[in-house]
Write a structure and sequence with these properties.
Blueprint: E1 2-6, H1 10-21, E2 25-30, E3 48-49, E4 52-53, H2 57-67, H3 72-76, H4 78-94, E5 99-101, E6 107-110, E7 116-119, E8 121-123, H5 124-128, E9 138-141, H6 151-165, E10 170-173, E11 180-184, E12 195-197, H7 203-216, E13 220-223, E14 228-232, E15 235-240, E16 244-246, E17 249-252, E18 262-263, E19 266-267, E20 274-275, E21 298-299, E22 308-309, E23 312-313, E24 317-319, H8 329-332, H9 335-346
Parallel strand pairs: 1-2, 1-17, 2-13, 9-10, 9-11, 11-12, 17-24
Antiparallel strand pairs: 3-4, 5-8, 6-7, 14-15, 15-16, 18-19, 20-21, 22-23
Helix pairs in contact: 1-7, 1-9, 4-9
Length: 350
């Protein structure tokens, strides 16, 4: 059995690893860096439901199952998603970049912008520095100033914000006798005991570790841009870029507008049927609580993540990650969570 995976972000990587675990010969094709590499590297599973912060991603997903049948989480179901999160945590340990957390509850971490972010899973050092541990403690935000990190600014912002959020902690810059020390992940030396402050771009560390692991398993990773597909009798026969690729099963996890999987005309390779919100694509305010309608644009799939082409199901193709329609990962804080869950399920294709 041969599986072709298009995309090397989180969704594509998890899909490839899951297919490999079933004994499939996996070939991964991507054209460059993914959106995962640009992220902060923590795994948001489900942080907000209808604009309100939720404490338990699992409980939020169960509510989605009852109310929103087109959301990827509603399609997969809570138990399936929980399986996928366990799969990812196990993989993170194997690659030497262990993640901690639970789908049963969200945590809060400080950001490079001096804000507090709700998330679910985080690399061990980041998880150890979660804000829940700051209660009645002295916290030192330190490290070398960079273009996107100013420790003094982070401290001043957190001193204003934390009391409003109900967190009682003393926050300092290069303070003495502090209980918790946080600095950017990339600035922590080997053997150092500091906790980590996650920065945008730290997702590149996670992605690099995962791709190195894929290479060690013998999974081929080819740089190419897929431009078209040949479809016969409801199945993909070949994908074509600089060369042609044949396989038994195909998974496309090429991302949304950022990754190039979507464009103004729709899905960019096959022109698959698209889910679109019947509303103006952009709201008048920059950051609306309900998000911009265009954010939910994406490929329509059935209960097995099979897409449709001219209303006909493609049986040997599955879609994973942000290429899917029916959800808004920005307002929900569900980006890498959906990528992991759908990648895992797409990789189960036999």
């Amino acid at each position: 059995m041969k599986t072709i995976v298009v995309g090397s972000g989180m969704a594509g990587i998890i899909a490839g690893l899951r297919a490999y675990s079933h004994g499939s010969d996996v070939v991964m094709i991507s054209q460059g860096r993914s959106a995962t590499s640009l992220s902060s590297g923590v795994v948001d599973v489900f942080g907000y439901f209808r604009g309100e912060e939720i404490k338990s991603p699992l409980e939020g997903i169960k509510r989605l199952e009852e109310e929103n049948e087109v959301h990827p989480y509603a399609i997969l179901g809570a138990e399936r998603i929980k399986e996928s999160i366990d799969f990812f945590i196990n993989i993170s340990k194997k690659v030497g970049f262990p993640f901690r957390g639970s789908i049963d509850r969200n945590i809060h971490i400080a950001t490079q912008f001096g804000t507090v972010k709700s998330t679910c899973l985080a690399y061990d050092r980041i998880y150890s520095g979660r804000v829940e541990r700051w209660k009645d403690r002295r916290v030192d935000i330190t490290g070398k100033s960079e273009r996107n990190f100013r420790p003094a600014f982070v401290v001043e912002s957190l001193r204003i914000l934390l009391p409003k959020l109900g967190f009682n902690a003393g926050v300092f810059h290069d303070g003495e006798d502090c209980d918790i020390i946080l600095k950017p992940l990339k600035q922590i030396s080997k053997g150092e005991s500091s906790c980590a402050l996650s920065l945008l771009g730290d997702g590149s560390i996670l992605e690099k570790k995962l791709l190195e692991y894929i290479k060690s398993l013998g999974i081929r990773h080819i740089k190419d841009r897929i431009l078209k597909a040949d479809i016969e009798k409801g199945e993909i026969k070949t994908l074509t870029g600089k060369r042609q690729y044949t396989g038994d099963n195909f998974i496309i996890a090429s991302g949304d507008y950022i990754g190039g999987g979507l464009n103004s005309f729709g899905e960019s390779i096959i022109h698959l049927d698209i889910y679109r919100i019947k509303d103006k694509p952009v709201r008048k305010i920059p950051f609306p609580v309900k998000g911009h309608p265009y954010s939910k644009n994406g490929v329509i799939v059935d209960e097995n993540l099979n897409p449709f082409y001219r209303e006909k199901r493609i049986s040997n193709l599955r879609i994973a990650g942000s290429l899917l329609g029916g959800y808004d990962y920005c307002t929900e804080k569900s980006g890498l969570g959906v990528a992991i869950a759908t990648g895992y399920s797409a990789g189960d294709m036999e």
